[in-house]
Amino acid sequence: MASDPESTALVVGEDGLARPAWASVDPMLREYYDTEWGMPVRDEHGMFERLTLEAFQSGLSWATILRKRPAFRAAFDDFDPEKVASYDDTDVERLLGDAGIVRNKAKIRAAVTNANATVALRAKGGLADFVWSFQPAQTPRPHTIAEIPTQSDESKALAKALRREGFSFVGPTTMYALMEAVGIVDTHLLGSHRRGTSGVWPS
């Protein structure tokens, strides 16, 4: 029986490897899926970049953000939290004029706000350890995309805790996507060649 590619099963590529439909066609998404998505990110710089990009992705496709990531890195000083924290209104206007990124004033200001919050959070152990402290006791074991949650009790708690620390654009759905991206949960479909490869969770 034919099934909806957005809710199913794995697609076996010409290389014999099984991937979800979203990562099976576009070479850029396939490369991201095969090498980066779901691998542990435990440093401040990497976590700040992922958190910022997830916020910019809100309401858009991840492919859009991924294609623009080189431009984002150039525009935001390679996501150096201290540099971004120092941005003023002139920098916000510069970013609003940069066609290479997503030109959303609220999201740009949130990036600056979150950079300042990231620097401040060093006094409590740093952003990466803070985010990882919300790792759940178990991870989903989805057979289809439809079985993957869009948020969890932990992502809700993380969103609330980050807001208390001064972060913005950190809703529970965005934070669940972050947790997936940085390996805190493993939502690779069962049977995918990437399932269990993070070393955080068994396959």
From TrEMBL:
Pfam families: Adenine_glyco. GO terms for molecular function: DNA-3-methyladenine glycosylase activity. It is an enzyme of class 3 (hydrolase). InterPro entries: Adenine_glyco, DNA-3mA_glycosylase, DNA_glycosylase. The keyword Transit peptide does not apply. Its EC number is 3.2.2.20. Signal peptide: none annotated. Coiled coil: none annotated. Keywords: Glycosidase, Hydrolase. PANTHER family: DNA-3-METHYLADENINE GLYCOSYLASE 1, DNA-3-METHYLADENINE GLYCOSYLASE I. This is DNA-3-methyladenine glycosylase I. The lineage of its organism: Bacteria, Bacillati, Actinomycetota, Actinomycetes, Mycobacteriales.
